[in-house]
């Protein structure tokens, strides 16, 4: 049986947060601990606003990978040859359900800086270069330190000031995409104007039609 289930693997620009604009291989793992990914379950899910299809392994570059070497090789091949500043973002779904020390070692051995996008419910393994934590209302909050905290806003029951004293280098509000994105963006702007330690994170890839 394959060790890693990957929905899709692609080269793009990181669209969000402090690394926005940077070339990166996105490795999107299948599966999440806060939603099955099925629309019929969304209303009952712990995380109900997800913008991502992470079910199965049928996306571009998606597959079951037999071991860390095989997946690291696919990541290297997606990056392409002859370019420095190698950067991989592990996301999902929830990447910390699958990302382990063997895969971290194998991608580091190929010269990649390693970032994760995590929902904060699982303690990150050692060795990561960049940790973006995006907590979810009502879910356990375990990963209370990292590189950046990116709060999807607004989430009833999750006030930004709960997080402000934590050990993160950057604090972002990212407007919740969906039917209310315009109102959510206005609310995030108003919050950042009134609380300047928070900055606005836009999903820039969506604005310009990038993946
Ligand atoms: C699809 S998630 C995958 C990683 C991880 N499960 C997490 O939630 O952080 C990637 C990023 O997109 C954010 N996101 C998901 N749905 C969103 C939405 N509707 N609007 C804005 N950001 C969203 C998440 O909060 C997270 O920062
Ligand atoms: N371009 C681009 N940037 C991103 N940053 C975080 C993303 C994610 O889905 O985790 C994402 C994504 O899906 N695409
Ligand atoms: S935790 Fe992340 S991947 Fe899981 S449903 Fe929420 S936004 Fe989507
Ligand atoms: Mg995304």
TrEMBL record:
Residues binding S-adenosyl-L-methionine: 49-51, 93, 134-136, 174-177
Catalysed reaction equations from the record: 6-carboxy-5,6,7,8-tetrahydropterin + H(+) = 7-carboxy-7-carbaguanine + NH4(+)
Superkingdom of the organism of origin: Bacteria
Record EC number: 4.3.99.3
Cofactor binding, note field: Binds 1 S-adenosyl-L-methionine per subunit. Binds 1 [4Fe-4S] cluster. The cluster is coordinated with 3 cysteines and an exchangeable S-adenosyl-L-methionine.
Domain Radical SAM core, first and last residues per copy: 19-211
InterPro entries registered for this protein in UniProt: 7-CO-7-deazaguanine_synth-like (IPR024924), Aldolase_TIM (IPR013785), QueE_Cx14CxxC (IPR030977), rSAM (IPR007197), rSAM_sf (IPR058240)
UniProt GO MF annotations: lyase activity
Enzyme class, spelled out: lyase
Required cofactor names: S-adenosyl-L-methionine; Mg(2+); [4Fe-4S] cluster
Pathway where this protein functions: Purine metabolism; 7-cyano-7-deazaguanine biosynthesis
UniProt binding sites for Mg(2+): 52
Keywords, comma-separated and alphabetical: 4Fe-4S, Iron, Iron-sulfur, Lyase, Magnesium, Metal-binding, Queuosine biosynthesis, S-adenosyl-L-methionine
Residues that coordinate or bind substrate: 13-15, 28, 91
Record: residues binding [4Fe-4S] cluster: 32, 47, 50
Pfam families named among the record's database cross-references: Radical_SAM
PANTHER family membership: 7-CARBOXY-7-DEAZAGUANINE SYNTHASE
Family statement drawn from the similarity comment of this UniProt entry: Belongs to the radical SAM superfamily. 7-carboxy-7-deazaguanine synthase family.
Complex and partners: Homodimer.
Protein name: 7-carboxy-7-deazaguanine synthase
Organism: Methylocapsa polymorpha
Encoding gene, per UniProt annotation: queE
